[in-house]
What we know:
single chain, mainly beta, four-stranded antiparallel beta sheet, 1 helix, 11% helix
Amino acid sequence: MATAPAAEPAAAPDAAAAAAAAEEKRKPKWSGGIEGNLTGAAAENDQWDLRVDAKLLREFPDDRLNMYAEHFLKTLGGANSGNTGNAITDSNLLSNITYNRFLNLGPWL
């Protein structure tokens, strides 16, 4: 009666690969975006709206940094508005920076 050969033990994970994976996990993850909108209407009163916004996010396992800025510009002009040209009626800049620190509990809790 023939017996099957014994299975070879699985190779231990490579220590260098494990260290590289741990280092990759500690690197920050960046993401972001830029948006822009332009709308307008040409009638008795001309109106133009411009909006530009930018976002940036950095994430670590222990913390998060979120930055945001938006600018909004509105113009109104025309024969019935009392303005000979375009007048800026609204110009707003909004921004926010938020930092979150996470308490990662160890195995003792």
